[in-house]
Amino acid sequence: MAVIDGEKIPYKDFEDLKNKNMENMKRSYGANLTSAQTYNVYNSTLEQMIKDNIMTKEYNAVGMHVTAEELYDQFVGEEPHQWVVQNFSDANGNFDRATLENYMQNLDNAPVEYRNQWVEFENAIKENRLESKFDNLVKASFYLPKRLADKYNETKNTKATADVVVLRYASIPDSTVTVTDQDKKSYYEENKYRFETDETRAIDYVVFEINPSEDDDQSAKQFVESMKEDFTNTENVINFVNANSDLRYDSTWLGRPDVPAVAEEMLFAPENEPGFVYGPYFDQNSYNLIRLVDRQVIEDSLMVRVAILRHELSPSTKTYQNTFAKANKFVTENRTLDQFNTAIETEGLTKRTQPRLTASTYQIAGIDNPRQIVRWAFEDKTKVGDVSTIFELDNMFVVAALTEIIPEGYAPLEKVAEQSKYPILNKKKGEIAVERMKACGTDYNRMVSELGAENTTVSDISMESRSVGNFGIESDVIGIIMGMKEGEVVGPIAGNSSAFVIKNVKRVAPAALSDYSNIEREKKAQFDNKVFNGGVYNALRNNAKIEDNRVLFY
Is 490 helix (H, G, I), strand (E, B) or coil? Predict the structure, then answer.
């Protein structure tokens, strides 16, 4: 499944753990998991195994482990583990130590599945305890030298004011700016680091939905109609419903808002006695009969008990075969991308596009469980222009064509051209603005009157600032201001969204620190927060050499 620094994770080990995790998920969310939930179990299982592999090496390297006594203390000690408290609390949310101890004492007599769950619970707490200890070890390594504290204090608390003449780029119409191909290429080369991308694929695809036909609709309706007499006359309503309906009998008492709206008046009409049957009617993609079983007043409200015989409308075998034949004809006759596109237009089909697939994509518009399509797109033998075979999914057939492959690295220029349009335009406007301001020399009033510039003062600037006055985010301009000497004039220079002339800079340095406790607490809190949010593992994972093969398996 994966190789971490040369150590393999076998598929069988993954499969065993995945099955356990799947059962745990079903206990929490029910037996019928969605495709997204199932895929999340697969992903979280592999990530769990990768993390265990990486962190176990770290624990062993520092000689860290959890003793049997320590683990026991996590359950019955003075401060039990939070997961233990969560699982053994009374109705008021208070930890119930007696219930826990009774459970542990009788564990040997419990069913095997309970004992296995307990072992998994112990292992989870042990792993969490190891992680906490390791994180605490890292937290305890924090040290802030005084010279570094002084530098932090200076950086944070040195404040500056400056007089600025600012020409906003918004004052220059887009229509007056010409962006050439060379401009785009230059910007791309200077900013390549912004366009790093995972390996991606793009596909076009056609969906052949397996929907019930008119014949299927009529057949379903006729089936329900044929059951009406027997449903009316049966003496054992519960058995009849459970034997013939797609919905099991439910004995719940219902009020007016709870019954199907189409049958509400008839079910509550006094002239209709228990045994009355209404239908068939169409509701929730099903043809239904509803029988009044009983009616009575409960807490001053008239309530009914009903039996519903439901027959869901679904495609017949014939409809399935006809839809498959249509998809098969399409894929057999159109094996190239040109043929694929021509046939879509000729046959009046709808072409859908997924412009960016990664190896971990699990959702495609209009498709619930597309993983087999993603795996096909990422197979080594799949080339641009290839047309797939038929993918049979829950309620549809899909045929896809691979239209593009972008390798891991930097996205090509043409793919980032649109998102680069605004910054390139601003860069060009910056060049224009600087030249216009230069033409005014040091006549700042002329810059204001002729160019529409603004002459103002900005204050409370520090190295931690993000914006300059109300002129937006200007990190480079802030850096220049904080580095200028008093009396110096800089500019005009091009910023992110305006051009600047900077002058009359005044800086106020903070007083020297005599008490380092506040800044030490601040930096310690920042450090601890990074550790708490997974910084240690994330750093180790980024540093590991990982070959991830999940796309080959699921």
Answer: strand
- Tell me the sheet residues that pair with 367: 364
Residue 401 bridge partners (DSSP): 204, 387
Contact 125, 83 (CB under 8 A): yes
Between CA 256 and CA 263 the distance in angstroms is 10
Is the Cβ–Cβ distance between 432 and 172 less than 8 Å? yes
pLDDT in tens, 406-451: 988 888 888 887 778 888 999 999 999 999 999 999 999 999 999 9
- Specify the amino acid at residue 403: T
Portion of the chain with pLDDT greater than 70, in percent? 100
Report strand pairing: 409-410 vs 490-494.
unpaired
For the sheet containing 7-9, what is the strand order?
7-9, 2-4, 546-548
Chain centroid to Cα 75, Å, comes to 34
Alpha-carbon distance of 273 to 251, in angstroms, equals 17
The answer to whether the CB of 405 falls within 8 A of the CB of 356 is no
Q: Which residues contact 20 (CB under 8 A, 6 or more apart)?
A: 120
Q: Residue 99 and residue 104: Cα distance in Å, rounded?
A: 9
Assess contact for 231 and 289: CB atoms under 8 A.
Answer: yes
Token pair of 27 as six digits: 């206990």
Question: Quick one: how far is CA 318 from the chain centroid?
Answer: 39
Handedness of CA 249, 254, 260, 262 (dihedral sign): positive
Q: Is the separation of the CB atoms in 461 and 162 below 8 Å?
A: yes
Beta bridge partners of 461: 160
**Taking the C-alpha atoms of 353, 354, 355 and 360 in order, what is their torsion angle to the nearest 10 degrees?**
-170
pTM: 0.68
Q: Write out the two tokens for 438.
A: 């230069």
Structure tokens at 316: 């017949």
Contact yes or no for 285/182 (Cβ under 8 A): no
- Whole-angstrom CA distances from 339 to 153, 331, 397, 459 are 68, 10, 19, 65
pLDDT, tens digit, for every residue of 81-112? 999 999 999 888 889 888 998 999 888 888 88
pLDDT for res 417: 75
Confidence of residue 33 (pLDDT cuts 50, 70, 90): confident
Contacts of 218 (CB under 8 A, 6+ apart): none
357 and 406 Cβ atoms separated by less than 8 Å: no
**Distance from the first to the final alpha carbon of the chain:** 10
Rounded Cα gap, residues 44 and 17, in angstroms: 10
* Rounded alpha-carbon distances, angstroms, from residue 321 to 311, 329, 425: 21, 12, 56
pLDDT tens digits for 236-256? 999 999 999 999 999 999 999
**What value, to the nearest 5°, has the Cα angle with vertex 145 and ends 141 and 147?**
160
Q: Is the bond leading into 280 cis (omega within 30 degrees of zero)?
A: yes
Sign for the pseudo-dihedral over CA of 341, 345, 347, 348: positive
What residue has token string 């979280």?
Answer: 44
Burial bucket for residue 372 (CB in 10 Å: 0-12, 13-18, 19+): middle
Asked if residue 145 has a cis previous peptide bond (ω within 30° of 0), the answer is no
